[in-house]
Automatic annotation (TrEMBL):
Residues 5-107 form the FAD-binding FR-type domain. It comes from Bacillus seohaeanensis. This is FAD-dependent oxidoreductase. InterPro entries: FAD-bd_FR_type, FNR_nucleotide-bd, MRET, OxRdtase_FAD/NAD-bd, Riboflavin_synthase-like_b-brl.
Amino acid sequence: MGSYKPKYKARLRKKEKIANDTMAFYWEKPENFTFKAGQYCDMTLIKPKMTDEEEKERALSVASAPYEENIMTATRMSDSTFKQVLKDFEVGTEVKFDEPRGEFTLHTRETTPAVFIIGGIGITPVRSIIAQATHDQLPHKLTLLYANKTPEDAAFMTDLKGFAEKNPNFSFVPVMTHANPSGWSGESGLIDADMIKRYVSDSSAPIYYLCGPPGMVKDMRKILMEIGADEDNIRAEEFKGY
C-alpha cells in the first residue's frame, strides 16, 4: 500500500471519542479531493515525534460520505506508535492523504439488494456507503448486520439509526456478541446462518459486503456459501490490527 505518494494536505478540525477505545478525526477536505463512498487512502503523518519510519503511514477508510463537509476517519485506539501520535494531535495539525482507492463500494445495479455483515471498526467504509445512499435517495435495498461486544463498543450507532429513520430502503440490525448485555433487547450472540436468514429472505439474491477482523470475515464467507450465496457476490475487506 506504500507505493502511492501522498497528494493532499489536510488539517485536523476536530477529534472525539465515539465508542469504547474508538476515536473519530475530522479533517478539512482539500480542494479536488474526491472519492467514492467505501474507499480508503493512506494517511501519512508529517514530522511525527517518533523514530519508526514504518509507523508514519496507515491505510484508513474514509468514514464520511462524499457529500459531507469534512474527511472523517475513525479508528480503534491502541498502543501503536501511529495511533498514540494521532490521539495526541491538536486541532490544526496537518497530515497528508494520498489518492483514495479501493473497490469496496456499492454496486450500481439498483434491483440487487446489498447485505452488509460487519464487525467492530469494520463499520467505517459502510457508514460512508449508507450515508451517501441515504443522501442520494438510492433505491437499493440495504441491510446491515453490525456486530459488537456491547453497545458501548459500537461506533456510529446514532448515525446508523438516523439513516434507518430517513431511508425506507435501509434496515439496520445491531448485534451484540456478549450474551444479554445490560438493557439490550436487540439481537445478541454471534451472527450465524439462522440470524442472516431472519433478515435476508432469499440468500442467493444479494451482493454481500463483509468487513471486520479476518477471522470473522472468513467465518461469514463460509456461512454465506453454506446458505446459498453466490461466491462471486461476496465482497470482503479485512481490518487487521484494529
